[in-house]
Amino acid sequence: MRSLPTLVLSLLVVAVGAQAAPATTETGTLEGASYRADIPADWKKGGGLVVFFHGYSDEPIEYGKDDRLSPMFDPMLREGYAVIQSGYTQPGWAIEQGSADSERLRKWFVAKHGAPAHTFAMGMSMGGTLTVHALETNPEVYDGGLSLCGAIEPSDRMMQRDFAVRAAFDYYFPGVFGELVPVPAGYVADDATARRAAAAMRANPKAAASLRAIYGAGDMNNLPGVIAAITYDVKEMQQRTHGNPFGNADLVYTGSADDDALNDGVKRYRADPRAAAYMARWYTPSGKLGKPLLALHDTRDPLVIASSAFEYALAVQRAGHADNFVQQYVKHEGHCVFTPAQIGKAFDSLVEWTRSGKRPPSGAQP
User: Residue 9: what pLDDT?
Assistant: First the structure.
């Protein structure tokens, strides 16, 4: 998941239920990327495999053998699936690195433990982007995929929207965060930063209401922390691309209390072409989805807006693969707030879809 101030930090709700089957845990490093593999005791060649793609993190992820495995994986382990996950060779928006590192890990697993009969991709937040990338670029490997609160619209569109909102924040609340292009190298998205944004918004409720209207997420209570996190993401992408991949020069803002004043007063920026090209490359989904993908989202996600996934639905429709995509939702507030039971139900629906060909229903998770 994206690393956020605790003001908006998501919580995976732990449900009490049957324990996962005993599993062997293997950890190590593969060409610079930490990895973890949890393998049921009775797993053998021809079993099932889940390749998990973790979300955005501002620090490198290191897996320890004695670390408690998230209960979100209990349903898969109970059903006999091995679960492997790479920490990636880089933190941040590591689509380029995460895709290569995870594929390397999958091949390592197959070489060591034997080829599985069925392989599923599963990712959370940015990991949803990686899940889509895996299915679109490596369809012969995977039977299907599960995207949880996934950022599955074009990455540049999502982050351009975030950038534009941060620029609007500067118009309404000047001086709270400092420069946007470039974001200062020492910027951190901590609680103190989020509190500064919250204080500024409380002091000008009318401007805060306009900003919320522009952003358009289902949960607006956490917007100060979201703005703080957005700013960190912009900084990281500016550093990653050695330029500024974002701009609002040609954007006409709408939805505020006074659109004319906002459009006249907001500072305008243009993206650096090479930086923007990298952002589009990693990743703009093609919609060429040859295997089933089930997406599950929180309706009031403040960070990856739930309605954004419809962009991917349109992409697969244009590409002629609409039958391979289903979007479901749960009525939760927060980013990636699911119970293990909900994740297990989604995974079971995906597996049944790949076996029977019967497409799950769209809409609220049954």
Answer: 42
Domain boundary among 259, 280, 301: 280
Q: Are residues 223 and 337 in the same domain?
A: no
185 and 141 in one domain? Answer: no
Whole domain around residue 301: which residue ranges? 23-153+284-364
* pLDDT at position 294 over 50: yes
Strands 293-300 and 325-333: parallel
Number of independent structural domains in the chain:
2
Residue 254 has pLDDT above 80, yes or no: yes
d(CA 365, CA 363): 6
Residues 352-365 have pLDDT tens digits of 999 999 999 999 99
DSSP 8-state code for residue 115? -
Looking at residues 226-249, what average pLDDT do you find? 98
Residue carrying the six token digits 């982007």: 129
10-21 pLDDT, tens digit each: 444 444 344 556
Last residue of a domain, one of 255, 280, 305: 280
* Residue 269 neighbours by CB under 8 Å, 6+ apart: 163, 167, 180, 181, 244, 246, 247, 248, 249
Clarify whether residues 145 and 292 are in a common domain.
yes
- The pTM (predicted TM-score) of the whole model is 0.94
DSSP string, 2-69: ----TTT----PPPP-PPPPPEEEEEEEETTEEEEEEEETT--TT-EEEEEE----SS-----TTSPP
Whether 11 is in a domain gets the answer no
Tokens coding 272: 């650096």
C-alpha to C-alpha distances, 169 to 81, 159, 224, 262, nearest whole angstrom: 46, 15, 10, 10
pLDDT digits (tens, 9 = 90+) for 158-214: 999 999 999 999 999 999 999 999 999 999 999 999 999 999 999 999 999 999 999
